[in-house]
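Z., the sequence and structure:
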Amino acid sequence: MADLSWTEPGAYPVSDGVWRIPLPLPMDGLRAVNVYVLETEEGLVLIDGGWAIPEAREQLVDSLRQAGHALSDIRRFLVTHVHRDHYTQAVALRQEVGAHVSLGIGEKPSLDLLNAAESVGDNDVRRLRRAGAHELDLPWTDTRGERPPVEYYDYPDAWLEASSRVDLGGRELDVVPTPGHTQGHVVFADTGGGLLFAGDHVLPQITPSIGFEPAWVQQPLRDFLDSLRRVRELPDLRLLPAHGPVTDSSYARVDELLAFHDERLADTLAAARGGARTGWEVAQELPWTRRRRRAVDLTPFDQVLAAFETLSHLELLVLRGQLARGEEDGVAVFAPV
């Protein structure tokens, strides 16, 4: 059973001048997202912002007060990626307190689609069809009233370019591109302080979803594995994840994630060799979550993630020459070479 003590509200010191504040994610199995607060001479810099909902705003106010601060002290947001639980409250609070928001340049194609909201669902439907999962409903199409307003997906004040550096006055953060979870995902490495603000790229208790974004790409798993190896080339840093407790070694978890995907690729190949032909058919042959559940027993949201993620494993096996891909009525079909 995963330790959920990290989700308890409050302001938790991580190191000198750095606090961890978990914010609630109602209606989300992840339960909470960690926002990291960095104290600087110019004011507060937050790594990620949380989801733009009243519960998260209220908790942020209360937790900042525990740390001796207020919303008005926030000067800047450095956002790891565009998902709603990381980006939307940063944009909402920008409107309120005038904070500056930065985001990885690789997220621009997804933001372009999110600002043309009518096309996002169509893109997801096409991808489900490609995975052979047309019988699945998109669980977010019937809950638009619960989604943040489109203005919370407004563009950032600045795009973070690949391999740049953010000087916070006494603390320097290296911006490390880590595409895979999303194409524009970045992590922030404070090598001087021994800290890795890892967003959703390296999570201590779960494996991050792959390529769940409006502007999806064909090889998100290849990108994700390359990004894990890129983080492995950094010093071994204290892991500060977006979901889960702080842990002591980024190396340890990166190695576990690489090993997991090696095993998953082998199981995916075996399922395809056993006769499963589409992403959804293969997904139904694989175990999911630590409880090793069947894909059909997952929540509707997680079923869609399973179909998308299995498709990414199959596409990487095609790239490696271990499977061949064809197409039948818009569905990608796979067969052993």
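The CA atoms of residues 197 and 240 lie 5 Å apart. The chain is about 30% helix and 20% strand.

Let me know what you think.
H.
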